[in-house]
Amino acid sequence: MDERKGIFLTMKFETSAIHVGEDPNFKEGGAGDAVIPIHLSSTFGRKNVDVPTGGYEYSRTKNPTRFALEKKLASLENAQYALAFASGMAAESTLLISLLKSGDHIIAFDDLYGGTKRLFNRVFHERMNILLSYIDVRNLKEIENSITKETKMIWLETPSNPLLKICDIAAIAEIGRKHNILVVVDNTFMSPYFQNPLNLGADIVVHSTTKYLNGHSDCVGGGIMVNDKELFNKIRFAQNAVGAILSPFDSYLVLRGIKTLAVRMKRHEENALKISEYLLKHKNVSKVIYPGLKSHPEYKLAEKQMSGFGGMISFEINSDLNGAKQFVERLKYFLIAESLGGVESLIEIPAMMTHASILKKDRELIGLKDNLIRVSVGIEHIDDLLEDLEQAFSTF
Ligand code: P1T
Fold first, then answer.
1. Which of 22, 129, 290, 301 has the fewest CB atoms inside 10 Å of its own CB, making it the most exposed?
2. Are 92 and 242 in contact (CB under 8 A)?
3. Per-residue pLDDT tens for 109-141?
4. Is residue 60 annotated as a catalytic residue, yes or no?
5. CATH number given to 261-394
6. What is the pTM of this model?
7. How far apart are CA 188 and CA 342, in angstroms?
8. Range(s) for CATH 3.90.1150.10 in the chain?
9. CA 6 from centroid of its chain's CA atoms
């Protein structure tokens, strides 16, 4: 059996999140660690020239702490293989480098994290001639109509960032299979606890582990999960060749964060549902977007393909950009910051922050307005969060 295969696939999610990758090492000289050590060695010695004695040769190629994380990441997405990278963007870049060449075409969701669009447009399109079509992938006909003989990849985020639009992974995977096109899902917003795209037929899952997987806003990282061995070998080759790997210490932090993913996700969701209901009733709010609200246009699909609704909410304040700024600046517990998925609540204005790299006219085309506020609901006590929102609205 390939050593990167998830070996504990029969375990329940919470159990594998804790145990996979944590080998206590009872071999002679081993300490019986309950937690995988941080292996800082950049290189590994061998007793003779032909074979690396412990299976490791150089840390960029393979490192014991990162390898433990890769096993854990694979098990969470029910994947055969996983690879860990220095950031979500490093994972995305390595993926494109490993699978595409000049002239290839990507069909991408028109609502994506701003940094992903910047990477696609400014690096892969402008400098490497990768062709791009941004479309509303909720419309399956539009996908079919956009396919050319150069199309090699369909790139999805669902729910998307920041408008939380939801597309049908299984149906799009079916289109991908029919036309021999790889379907990639960035599963950062749901985390593997609430959604498993490979189970729905996607070929590749991408994560910014910076977010829910690490969960404590103290490490930037990324991951890729796949089932196909040939795909894995191509991406692993590029991981080593390009070298955008996650460090041993950061690998340890993500390993540690994952152990509490299930309990954190439940609380993120519980708080987000209460906050979205509060916002829905508020006179200073003109629109609330949360997949767990029946008013969400893809609520039925969300119920079908996700096992929970997550901790991200976007809403339009009944005001302009200045009003949005004033509101977020009055909050005490919600930190004004980019990123998401940490235990603490974060709030931001996408037009000024995470999606500022997208032209205003392009933002408007997809419905991203200046008065949109995005919230990453943390796991603080709900009463404190609601009280904070109320005091910020009351001075409005
Ligand atoms: O920041 P990094 O780890 O490189 O991950 C990039 C990334 C990829 N995919 C999605 C869906 C993301 O949301 C991100 C990063 N997003 C933010 C920093 C943000 O505030 O939305």
1. 129
2. no
3. 999 999 999 999 999 999 999 999 999 999 999
4. yes
5. 3.90.1150.10
6. 0.96
7. 12
8. 261-394
9. 20
